[in-house]
Design goal:
The chain is an alpha/beta fold. It has two domains: about 170 residues, Alpha-Beta Complex (Quinone Oxidoreductase, Chain A, domain 1), CATH 3.90.180; about 140 residues, 3-Layer(aba) Sandwich (Rossmann fold). The protein is about 25% helix and about 25% strand. Strands 3, 4, 5, 8, 9, 16 and 17 form a seven-stranded mixed beta sheet that branches. Strand 16, helix 11 and strand 17 form a beta-alpha-beta unit. Helix 4 packs across helix 10. The structure holds nicotinamide-adenine-dinucleotide and zinc ion (ZN) (2 copies).
Length: about 350
């Protein structure tokens, strides 16, 4: 098969590699599209070394069509359209025994901890596959993983009808939190980000979204002003490594300051630096601090909404390039970060 192999950091080659060997309890998937993630952008220059030693095939957001079914597998047929959940949990640790898979201490990801989906084929266990409607565009199937993160965050925060919400970070994760939240609530949603193009995507696609550029206005003040001083029901942090903005607190602290009494803060950003939090500000509101990691079976929910046309995948896709152009795709995103939200790679013939 052909695959995009990261030969050395910053250097992909599109080349012939051996086909995956299908085990009796696996399904072979012919990848149609895969999506480039922020994590891939870190793997590319070697930020994930030694977790991702080269040569290596990245790709953990992917969809395709079943090409072959191992003899022990039931429930799948050749030609089924499927999204691939890249999470491989150990099944043995205390978290797994409680079926709390995102907290698995041995959690691994296809395309991060082992070769992944930037290739024509992957072989995976059937529980990692989720069937999509035959007429769902292949491009959209490849977005199921990132949507799963947005739905999981809303499940963790228990978003309810009429909740008002603020989302720090209108990047890839912030946008899917927005789309998943909109399925649940008619309430006002605030999007906070210094990048105007990302704010525009949110405002153009959804009604009752108020965008706040923290370089122009303090987001906590804006939220208080629009909510009559009350604050929002839930604030999500989807930033991670935050740009420092003069006069504005860090995203997590701003989230705490933006919620109503008894409100919730759900943190997703995976920054490495400590984030200052004044706990008194949270305790006086008796607020809840929640975290959310990857997804936990939300693929089913995501695909149901994608099949029914309730999500806006077009709003996320900035560009589609062929798999053979992978080096160019990564360099293009690096050069013009504010132009490309989701770039999809086409692995069809
Ligand atoms: N918990 C999870 O399951 C999970 C899953 C995927 C990614 N992540 C993490 O979530 C974070 C966001 O990922 P992403 O792919 O959306 O990245 P992204 O780069 O697409 O989005 C981050 C956004 O934050 C904005 N930002 C930077 N500083 C800010 C500030 N001070 N205030 C407001 N906005 C600010 C940036 O302009 C950018 O648009 C990363 O840390 C990533 O590692 C977590
Ligand atoms: Zn990803
Ligand atoms: Zn485990």
């Amino acid at each position: 098969m052909k695959a995009a192999v990261l030969e050395s950091y910053n250097n992909f080659s599109w080349k012939e590699v051996p086909d995956p060997v299908l085990k009796p309890d696996e399904v072979l998937v012919r990848i149609q599209f895969a999506s480039i993630c922020g994590t891939d952008m870190h793997i590319f220059p070697g930020d994930f070394h030694p977790r991702t030693p080269v040569p290596f095939i990245p790709g953990h957001e992917m969809g395709g069509v079943v090409a072959e079914v191992g003899r022990e597998v039931i429930g799948f047929d050749r030609g089924d359209k499927v999204a691939v959940d890249p999470i491989i949990w150990c099944g043995k640790c205390p978290a797994c025994l409680r079926k709390h898979y995102p907290a698995c201490t041995g959690l691994k990801l296809l395309g991060v901890d082992m070769d992944g989906g930037f290739a024509e084929y992957v072989a995976v266990k059937p529980h990692m596959l989720f069937k999509a409607a035959p007429d769902l565009p292949d491009e959209h199937v490849a977005l199921a993983e990132i949507y799963g993160i947005g739905f999981h965050a809303n499940n963790r925060a228990k978003t309810q009808q009429d909740d008002t919400i603020a989302i720090w970070g209108a990047g890839r994760v912030g946008q899917v939190i927005l789309q998943a939240a909109r399925i649940r609530t008619r309430g006002t949603i605030f999007m906070v980000d210094p990048i105007e193009s990302w704010l525009q995507i949110a405002a153009e696609n959804y009604e009752d979204v108020i965008t706040v550029n923290p370089k122009k206005e303090n987001p906590v003040d804006a939220i208080k002003r629009h909510t009559g001083g009350k604050g929002v029901d839930i604030a999500f942090e989807a930033v991670g490594h935050a740009e420092e903005i003069t006069g504005v607190h860090t995203p997590v602290r701003s989230c705490i300051q933006s919620i109503r009494g008894g409100g919730k803060v759900c943190v997703l950003g995976l920054g490495d630096e400590p984030s200052p939090v004044v706990f008194k500000e949270l305790i006086w509101k008796e607020g809840q601090l929640i975290t959310s990691r990857v997804s936990d079976g939300e693929f089913t929910e995501v695909i149901e909404h994608l099949n029914a046309g309730r999500l806006k995948p077009h709003a996320l896709i900035s560009k589609v390039m062929h798999g053979s152009e992978i080096q160019k795709a990564f360099e293009t995103i690096q050069q013009e970060k504010e132009k490309y939200l989701k770039v999809l790679l086409d692995f069809r013939d």
